[in-house]
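Quick question: what would this complex look like in 3D?
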Amino acid sequence: MSGSAVSDLLLSVDGVTIDYSGFKALDNFSMTLNRGETRVVIGPNGAGKSTLCDTIIGRVRPSQGRVLFKGEEIQRLPEQQIVARGICRKFQAPGVLPTLSVRDNLGLAARKDRRWWKSFGAGIPADEKRAVEEALESVGLTHRAGVEAGTLAHGEKQWLEIAMVMATGAELLLLDEPTAGMGPAETSRTAQLILGLGDSRTVLVIDHDMSFVEQLAAPVTVMHQGKFLKQGSIAEVRADAEVAAVYLGHTA
Amino acid sequence: MPDLSRLDPLKPVLPWLLLALGLVAPFALSAYDLNLLARFMAMGILALGLVLIWGHGGILSLGQGVFFGLGGYAIALHMKLADLPSGEIPDFMVWSGRDSLPFWWIPFSSPAFTIAAILIVPTLVGALFSWAVFHRRVGGTYFALITQALALAFSTLIISRQDVTGGFNGLTDFYSVFGFGLSSPGTGSGLYWVTLVVLCIAFVALRWLLASRFGILLRAARDGENRVRFLGYSPTPFKVVAFAIAAMLAGIGGALFTLHAGVVSPALIGVVPSIEMVVWVAIGGRYSLAGAIVGALLVNLARDAVSSAFPELWLYLMGVLFIFVVTLLPRGLAGLVQGKAA
C-alpha cells in the first residue's frame, strides 16, 4: 500500500462499523484493494467476512465509516447502482436463477442496458452474445447452455454463478466462498478460473479452504471479530502466532 | 405421475384448437350459449393477465376483481348515460334523493372518453398501487393480503355509495352501446367477435412479452429477486409494469363482460370473485396462456351447470377442485399437456 499507488487504488473500506443492535459484525474495519489485485480474506466463523461483502455491495449499511470505489463514496447507494458502477458479487449459496436456461442466466448478467423500458425485445447485441459464449467456455458449460440452471450439479451452479459475475464486466468481483461444496479437482479448477482472469479484474475472495487459498497464491487479509488482524502472503500469515491463535487453531 | 410426454405434440396445437373453436362457435351455438361463451372469454382475458403476474412474476393478486370492476363500471356509466333522455339522471339516483349527476359521471357520456377510461384507469390504478407496495420491497403473501384488502375496500365503497354507484344492486338495464341496440342479435354476435379478437390480441401480445427479455427478467425476479438486484437490475419497475398490464387486461375483460352480461355489481368484483379468478388460472395452469383460457372457460362452464342445478354446492365443489389441482397438478391442466413451463 505505497502512497505512490493512489491512482491504482480501486476500493477503500475506511473505518467501517456494522452494528447489529450492539453486536459489531464489522468494527472500525479498513482495507484497500488496488486495480488488478487478487486478495483473499480469511478468518474464523463470525469474523465478518460475508458482512464485508454485504457492506461493499450495499446489502447492509455502515453506521460509521465509508466505502470508496474509484474514489467515490458508495455506501449509501442502492444496490443496483453499486453494481452499475462495476462491482458484482457471488453469494455463498449458489444464486443462479433455476428456471432460466444457463445461457439466459448469463445473458441477464452480460446485459449492459438494464433499464426496464429497454427490455421489450428478444434481440441480443453481438458483444453481449460473445461475452455469454466466452463465459460459457471459461467454465466449461457450453454443452449445458440450454438446460435449466436449476438442474445443474452443485459445482456447476457455483461455476455458473462465477461466470455470471464475470460476465457482468464488473471491475471488482466479490467471490464469497466460491468453492463451498466442491471436491479437490473442482476446487483446483475454480482456482485456475480465478487466476485466468489475470490483471484485468480485481478480485476479493472469501474462503475457508487453505489449499484453495494456496493455489491462488494471493495476499491474504485476516479478519477476527470484525476487526483487521493481519495481512501478508499465505506463508507469512501461516507463520504468524496471533493468526494461529485465533484461526488456524494450533500453536506456531 | 404417469408419463405424459407423448402428449407434448398437443402443446403448440392447443392455441390453434381454441381459435378454431372460437371461430366455429357463432355458427354452432344458440344466441344464449354464444353470449355465455363470450362472457367466459372476457374472463379469459383477465386470466391471461394472471398468467403474466402470478405464473411468470410470482405475484399472487387476490384483487383482480377491482380492475375488472373499474373496466366494467366505466362502460356501465357510459351505457346508463347513453340511454337517458337529456337532462335526466339515472333512476336509482332519483330514488336515493339526488337531483344531479356527480361530476365524475359527466365525461362518461363520451364514447371516446369511456374507451380511454377502460384502457387507462385500471392500468394506472394497478401501476400506482403496485409501485407503492413493491418499491417498499413488500411481496409474497403480504402483497396477496393487501390486494385482498383492496378488493374488499373497493366493493365496500361501491355498496356504501348507493346514490352514485347503484350500491349492492350494481348497474343494469342497458339498452344500447355506441349506438347499437343491445337486444338485437347482430349486436350480440358482433360483441362476440370483438371479444374473440381482443382475446387473440392479448394472447399474442403476452406470448411475445413472455418470450422477450422482459419475460426472462420477470421469471428471474420471481426465482431470485436478490440475485437480479445484485446483477444490477431494479426488479420493481418490471413487476409494476407486469401488474399494470394484468390490471389493464382485467379492465378490458370487465368492460366486455359487462356488455355481455348486461350488469356489473359488487357481487361480481369483490373478494370471493377475485379469489375465483385465481382458481380458474390455478386449474387451467398458471404458467400457460392457453391453459388459463381453458381454465376460465371450463370452471365457468362448470359453475354455470352446477349452480343452476345445485346453487349451494358450487363453492364447495370449487374448493375441492382447487385443493385437488394445487396438490396434484401444480401446473394445472396445462401441466398434463406440457412437458415444461413456458
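Answer marked as accepted. The radius of gyration of chain A is 18 Å.
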